[in-house]
């Protein structure tokens, strides 16, 4: 139920500061050498750390006054910025990717994101899309099982703070079954009035306490596919569920050509699914989180 075709990016190691010597073990000659403003090694090391050096050999009182801030900083609230020295808040030194250019971040979704989710879901063929009503149901009943990845535009000078844009999402519910079923994907008729829904004495929709996280949608806007958005989102989602220890497994149905993608994250194919959603033809995949086998 997704069409991500990316792999997570990897960051290169930061600058090597192994050239710094502990002053406690330095002799007088070394101290004099380090205090010399013409010392090329000192200039190189201090320059890589983002520290400007005066003619007297000491850092300027306020390096921010002497540096121009890069224009591609992400727009964030001031209270969200950690009070680190300037050079620790500079952009990463690794080669920028298409994903970096989006300034992405992930966060849980809520009912306020329904229209955004409907827009992202349009990446699928119409028969395979989650309906608006199902988004409302799932983001009301179990929003903690959802995750969105957003892009935050660069803040332009003199312009109001831009709104983050949802570019990909994962939507899920709980089920007591080891695999995704058509019953798990149902929208209960009276879900606003009844916490538990049954049809023919079988639970339908979200089951509180179910040990399987049933993913119903992994979607990325078409214009952002191929930028590692889907793989980054899925990796983050798996990490959150695993660390929270709230389920024994994660299950999903997908098409044949996407099986290798999910297998790269640890999912195992369980063969042809019985689900007939969207016309059927799905493959069951399971990522086991606990010791229990299914």
TrEMBL record:
Entry keywords, A to Z: Acyltransferase, Transferase
Gene3D superfamilies the record matches: 3.40.630.30
Alphabetical list of Pfam families matching this protein: Acetyltransf_10
Domain named N-acetyltransferase: residues: 153-292
InterPro entries cross-referenced by the UniProt entry: Acyl_CoA_acyltransferase, GNAT_dom, SNAT-like
Top-rank taxon: Eukaryota
Keyword Calcium among record annotations: no
PROSITE patterns, alphabetized: GNAT
GO molecular function: aralkylamine N-acetyltransferase activity
Classification via SUPFAM superfamilies: Acyl-CoA N-acyltransferases (Nat)
GO cellular component, one term: cytoplasm
Region of interest called Disordered, as start-end residue ranges on this chain: 1-40
Annotated CDD domains: NAT_SF
Cited PANTHER family: SEROTONIN N-ACETYLTRANSFERASE
The protein's name: N-acetyltransferase domain-containing protein
Organism, scientific name: Penicillium canariense
């Amino acid at each position: 139920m997704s069409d991500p075709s990316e792999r997570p990016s990897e960051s290169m190691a930061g600058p090597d500061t192994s050239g710094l010597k502990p002053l406690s073990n330095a002799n007088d000659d070394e101290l004099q050498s380090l205090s010399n403003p013409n010392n090329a090694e000192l200039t190189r090391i201090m320059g890589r750390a983002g520290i400007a050096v005066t003619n007297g050999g000491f850092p300027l009182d306020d390096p921010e006054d002497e540096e121009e801030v890069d224009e591609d900083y992400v727009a964030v609230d001031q209270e969200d910025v950690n009070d680190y020295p300037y050079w620790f808040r500079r952009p990463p030194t690794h080669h920028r990717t298409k994903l970096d250019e989006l300034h992405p971040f992930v966060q849980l979704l809520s009912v306020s994101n329904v229209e955004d989710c409907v827009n992202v879901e349009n990446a699928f063929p119409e028969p395979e899309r989650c309906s608006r009503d199902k988004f409302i149901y799932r983001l009301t009943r179990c929003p903690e099982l959802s995750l969105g990845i957003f892009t935050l535009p660069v803040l332009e000078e003199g312009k109001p703070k831009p709104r983050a844009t949802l570019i990909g999402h994962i939507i899920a519910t709980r089920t007591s079954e080891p695999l995704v079923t058509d019953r798990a994907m149902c929208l209960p008729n009276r879900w606003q009035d009844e916490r538990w829904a049954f049809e023919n004495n079988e639970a339908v929709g979200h089951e509180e306490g179910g040990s399987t996280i049933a993913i119903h949608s992994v979607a990325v806007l078409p214009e952002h596919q191929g930028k590692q958005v889907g793989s980054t989102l899925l990796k983050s989602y798996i990490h959150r569920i695993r660390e929270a220890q709230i389920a024994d497994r994660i299950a999903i149905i997908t098409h044949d050509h996407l099986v290798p993608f999910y297998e790269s994250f640890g999912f195992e194919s369980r063969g042809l699914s019985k689900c007939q959603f969207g016309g059927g033809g799905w493959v069951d995949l399971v990522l086991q989180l606990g010791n229990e086998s299914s």
